[in-house]
Write a structure and sequence with these properties.
The protein has a 4-stranded mixed sheet, sandwiched between helices. It is 37% helix and 20% strand. It is of the alpha+beta class. It has 3 helices and 4 strands. A hairpin with a 2-residue loop joins strand 3 and strand 4. It is globular.
Length: 83
């Protein structure tokens, strides 16, 4: 499972998403778009217009933000080796 988070440095939900993934022992790539409006706009377009961070992609598929990530975790779908 490949996880990518697009974040900003001032976002509490971004910190919560990173903490959740770390607690589960899941590796992820973080891309900070705090000062990169062009990259944030590009990823927003990939995410069907989603504008808030974090923007979470699993295996290149946009799944949503922190709440959606948490729901996957609560459903047992964030376990290593699953996906």
């Amino acid at each position: 499972m490949t996880i990518t988070l697009y974040t900003t440095d001032y976002c509490g939900y971004c910190r919560a998403a990173k903490r959740l993934l770390a607690e589960r022992g899941l590796a992820f790539t973080e891309i900070d778009v705090t000062n990169n409006a062009a990259e944030r706009a590009a990823v927003s377009a990939r995410a069907d217009g989603w504008r808030t961070v974090p923007m979470v992609f699993i295996d290149e598929r946009f799944i949503g933000g922190y709440q959606e990530l948490l729901a996957l975790d609560q459903a047992g779908q964030l376990l290593p080796g699953r996906g």
